Amino acid sequence: MTPQTRTSLKELQQLDQDIAQVRSAVQELELLLEEVDAPVLRSEQDVKGLQKRLQEVKLVEQRVELSIEERQVRSKKLEGRMEEVRNVREEAAVHAELEMVRRALENDEQEALSLLDQIRRIEERLDEQDAAYQEALTEVEPRRVELTQERLGTEERLEELKEKRKTFAEGIDPSERRVYESIMAGSTGVAVSELMPDGACGNCFSVVPLQVQNEIRHGTGMIRCEGCGVILTPESAEGIARAEAENERIMEALELTEEERDVERAVVAEAIAAEAAEEAAVVEEVVETGLAAMLGDGGVEPEPEAAPGEEAAESEPEAALAEEEATIAAPSSEAAEDSTPMLDEVVEGDSSSDRPVTDDDAGV
Ligand SMILES: [Zn+2]
Fold first, then answer.
1. Over the stretch 213-231, which tens digit does the pLDDT of each residue have?
2. What is the pTM of this model?
3. 169 CA distance to ligand 1 middle (Å)
4. Is the domain 3-172 a CATH 1.10.287.1490 member?
């Protein structure tokens, strides 16, 4: 993979990422437009529903009007027949029919009135709804125009980018383009990535083996990350600069925390010192009161702790033990010679002892 191909693939990826971004911007705008249009659409549907209902009712009313006309004609005819009747039976028959037609006519007229009333009410509601619709339309219109224009502009930009991408892709080696496109078809939308200055993949941050890093930096093969599969390219000057800026930012943040920690440490140290001073004061008090209690109790001086004499060592076993410890800690020839047999045993093997140990052991 030549440096030219590397740059080309990176540029292609930039174009693809731009296209993806613009495409999602178009989708977002479409969603926004739907949102803006939603109340207007609802209002429009209300108006349309009322218009349909109005038509239906008007149709029924027209039928009733027709029926009224027919019955009026029939009624006129029957009225004429009434004048031509020849006997009472005929008169009764015509009269009965006329009565029937008149009643039906009355019913029709009642129905027509009720329908006309319905029509009037529907028309009123339609006027209201239409006004609301027009108002909603006016209200959202500026936003709608704005969004529509924005969408048009974004769609144009998308077309431009697609065209540019097509031309650009034609200039890339087909086999390399196929590899690129097969990776791009994955879900991440990244197919080419720079090595990081520390030798990690710039996409998944897994560390690339040193030898492979060398191949990427100096070789010509197309090398893909073992971790995520992207094509790896050497770090570019701008990539390095970006990484350095990021490092600097991290270092600054660390320094800041370090300063904060120093302050924290100082506070803690102060607290510890204060506590220690307090404790010391308490201990002193306890010792003083303890001594006072002892003196007041028996009037006997406590044994001097620091100076157990040789006589004390002989007379008191406890003191002897103390002496013994002292001897072990700092063996001296004097102590070894002067001490009791018990002490002798303890210091056996001491180089300062004159007698061989085995003689003594055998004698006992
Ligand atoms: Zn990777």
1. 999 988 888 899 999 999 9
2. 0.51
3. 24
4. yes
